[in-house]
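Postdoc handover notes: sequence design on the structure in folder B. Input tokens:
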């Protein structure tokens, strides 16, 4: 492996070039008390030996593909067509950067334009921008835009059933922006209680639907409570838009969130891809990039970046955001998957996820008080909360049965009811649902 580590004579040639007698002289300027001494590193190995050792280490990992998985809580496992990876791996997409020069970036610009189009179709909103980081920062952007639209209002009413990670990000940015967050509790049905909303004092009213418990919020009621304030719907599980009516249908001002569920496999924290859709009157207050369609000098269709008041751009003095980079490669993945699914496919995927979740809920009800559903009578999409005083211990017991049973709520936030968030997608089979319930009967 001489390609990757120095050969026998390489070190001596480097020392001679530097005019040093030994390696110790190279580090002589560093005080002894700052050194950590010799590292207990093993001897170098040949390439095949390294491959074997790393393979053995990898086999010790427990993954969502090697076990039965019901993980969710903001990161969802759906079918990813092989063609998506094939398209993403093309060099012209994989190595592309910001499409500042439209004459050489038409492919990238068209891909982003199609992403925006799909977001508009899913949310039933008139305009959408190029992608954002993730759902949490998209939520932050919605609130910051509301503060620009209604600068005289410094109060934001936000549901406490928002995903805790998004709520934490929002708290951080709201403090810096001198916005007051009024956190709305959830009721006995798992939905946000809207009685404390004071629309005349608000820049925005923010809810997530389905919320962190998987419960479907009453969006018409939220819009009515928001009044003149901006009504914001956050979506963490984007496939729900194939089944549930989006905020755009009820007059919401912003529908934003995360598109990870369409094509991005679960990984160690990302990357994700945020989306942001709004009404036309807020076009110039929208964060990030907008790809527009026009015609060139020959009258042919062309794509350009437009209305991009970003921190790096020539109009940076009028920037609407400093955290709105474009995850265009991830947006391309979403675009490819949505193109393959089509309108019917998106709905069928959502129906399959919902139906399997309802099947599992029906089985779990037979366990009775041992593991009760938190909000039994309220509609959910494909995720729900099971109450248990020791969720971490229960999940460890299930893991020993070869099942990743869900996400323990204490890992997300201490203020959530203690229990396990269970997510079911079209990738879960009925046999896996039966196996989960059988395992629970043994370990409870």
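Designed sequence:
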């Amino acid at each position: 492996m001489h390609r990757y580590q120095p050969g026998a004579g390489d070190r001596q040639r480097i020392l001679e070039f530097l005019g040093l007698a030994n390696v110790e002289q190279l580090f002589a300027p560093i005080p002894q008390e700052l050194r950590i001494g010799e590292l207990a590193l093993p001897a170098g190995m040949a390439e095949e030996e390294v491959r074997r050792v790393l393979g053995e280490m990898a086999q010790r990992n427990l993954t969502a593909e090697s076990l039965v998985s019901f993980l969710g809580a903001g990161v969802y496992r759906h079918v990813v067509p092989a063609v998506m990876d094939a398209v993403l791996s093309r060099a012209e997409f994989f190595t592309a950067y910001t499409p500042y020069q439209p004459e050489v970036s038409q492919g990238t610009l068209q891909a982003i334009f199609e992403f925006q189009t799909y977001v508009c179709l899913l949310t039933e909103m008139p305009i959408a921008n190029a992608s954002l980081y993730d759902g949490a920062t998209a939520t932050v952007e919605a609130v910051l835009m509301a503060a620009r639209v209604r600068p005289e209002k410094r109060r934001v009413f936000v549901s406490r059933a928002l995903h805790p990670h998004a709520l934490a990000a929002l708290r951080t940015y709201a403090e810096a922006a001198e916005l007051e967050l009024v956190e709305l509790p959830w009721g006995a049905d798992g939905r946000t209680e809207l009685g404390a909303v004071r629309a005349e004092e608000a820049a925005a009213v923010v809810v997530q639907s389905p919320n962190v418990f998987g419960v479907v919020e009453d969006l018409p009621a939220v819009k009515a409570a928001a009044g003149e304030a901006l009504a914001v719907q956050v979506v963490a599980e984007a496939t729900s838009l194939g089944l549930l009516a989006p905020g755009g249908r009820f007059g919401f001002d912003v529908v934003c969130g995360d598109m990870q569920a369409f094509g991005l496999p679960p990984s160690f924290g990302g990357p994700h891809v945020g989306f942001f859709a709004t009404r036309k009157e807020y076009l110039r207050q929208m964060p990030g990039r907008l790809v527009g369609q026009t015609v060139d000098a020959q009258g042919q269709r062309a794509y350009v970046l437009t209305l991009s008041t970003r921190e790096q751009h020539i109009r940076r003095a009028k920037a609407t955001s400093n955290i709105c980079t474009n995850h265009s490669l991830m947006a391309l993945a979403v675009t490819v998957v949505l193109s393959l699914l089509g309108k019917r496919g998106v709905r069928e995927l959502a129906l399959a996820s919902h139906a399997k979740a309802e099947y599992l809920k029906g089985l779990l009800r037979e366990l009775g008080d041992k593991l009760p559903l938190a909000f039994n009578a309220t509609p959910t999409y494909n995720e729900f909360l099971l109450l248990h005083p020791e969720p971490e211990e229960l999940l460890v017991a299930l893991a020993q049965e070869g099942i990743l049973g869900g996400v323990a709520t204490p890992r997300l936030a201490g203020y959530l009811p203690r229990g396990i968030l269970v997510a079911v997608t079209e990738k879960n089979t009925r046999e896996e649902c039966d196996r989960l319930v059988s395992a629970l009967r043994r370990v409870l």
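Context for whoever picks this up: Residues 328-365 form the longest helix (38 residues). Don't rerun without checking with the PI first.
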